[in-house]
Amino acid sequence: MTRGCDRPPELQMLADYWSGDLPAPDAERFEEHLFECRDCEGRLRDLVDLGDAVRRLAHEGAVQVIVTPSFLEKATREGLRIREYAVSPRDRVSCTVTAQDDLLISRMRADFTGVSNLDVRLRVEGQPDVWIKDVPVSPDARELIMAQAMPVVRALGRIVLHFSLVAREGQSERVLGDYTFDHTPTPP
Amino acid sequence: VEETKAERDANDSELAVRLAGGDSAVEEELYRRLAPRVRLYGLRHLRDPAAADDLVQDALLMAFEMLRTGKVREPERFVSFVLGSCRRIVAALRRGGARRKRLLERFGSELAPAVICEAPPVDLDRLARCLERLPERDRSVVVMSFYAEAGSEQIGVELGLSPGNVRVVRHRALSRLRACLEGTP
Known about the structure:
The complex is a heterodimer. By secondary structure, chain A is of the alpha+beta class. Chain A contains five helices and nine strands, in the order αααβαββββββαββ. Chain A has helices at 11-19, 24-34, 38-59, 69-77, 150-154, and strands at residues 65-67, 82-87, 92-95, 103-109, 118-123, 130-132, 143-147, 159-169, 172-183. In chain A, the strands form two sheets. Chain A has a five-stranded mixed sheet, with no helix packed on it. Chain A is globular. The radius of gyration of chain B is 21 Å and the shape is elongated. Helices cover 75% and strands 0% of the residues of chain B. In chain B, helix 2 crosses helix 3 (27-46), helix 3 (27-46) runs parallel beside helix 5 and helix 8 (124-133) packs across helix 11. The N and C termini of chain B lie far apart (44 Å). Chains A and B meet through helix 1, helix 2, helix 3, strand 1 and helix 4 of A and helix 3, helix 5, helix 8, helix 9 and helix 10 of B.
């Protein structure tokens, strides 16, 4: 048992280990150290606790986040009830969220070929535009999948939300699609 | 009280040697030390709290029994022996992994309560606010890492980033979350 670790691992190394990104020989060496070192056990425990908390918030739909098909597959495996609205450019869709829904997912279809920098603009009449900058998306993707923050959506009254996907190339910008969501709250 | 303090001051090897020599008083302390490490190992490799708990039971019950009955050749290297036991058990579970995967796909939703079964020792409201402050890209990478339990390669493919970039973003995001939770800028 080490009394105070003389070779504490960096946070990046711990995250790589936990995510399976460390080469196998390095992971095995770290495990041998982990089993001998109470300090490193505590460091890894802290990271795992943080990861558990992030997972719990994602499970509860607590924050807005750009997600991918593997996120939705995991949510489905966990038995979450997912309400989805898939829209193409220029679509207008009526939407809501009910007390039974666990996640609210917006799937905005577009052609992201050649797009290296993507922003999302949210426009609500009478309010200043909200920009979500530098949104991650694969150039091969055919849609941007956004998990909405359930506490925020549940608090919305009747409202029209205009989303735009905007590709930025240097100083120029190109709108990939405009999407309108007519939100109506569902009575509890 | 003095005996307990002495046990706590002893290193793992010393406790294992004493237990192998018949001093059963140290068994609880040694188990208390090793169980969290085995559970972390189990969580890392099995990605399932219930399976990690089972690993703690299976690996430590067997290892302690072998230590008590003189079947561990080098008691001073008992911790390495436990790690080896964990590796063998996980490898055996992986060999049966295809069957487990089929069962999970069929019954996964019924097992959902076991997936998140512990209240994490992190202030969730505060963490939610900290997550909201992260850049969109960082938040996605962190959520994909811990919720979808995806590695850098998969996340990179799905989000249009290189694996190296995913690792950098993940590290930066975790550092920011920690600082935010601790109240430092």
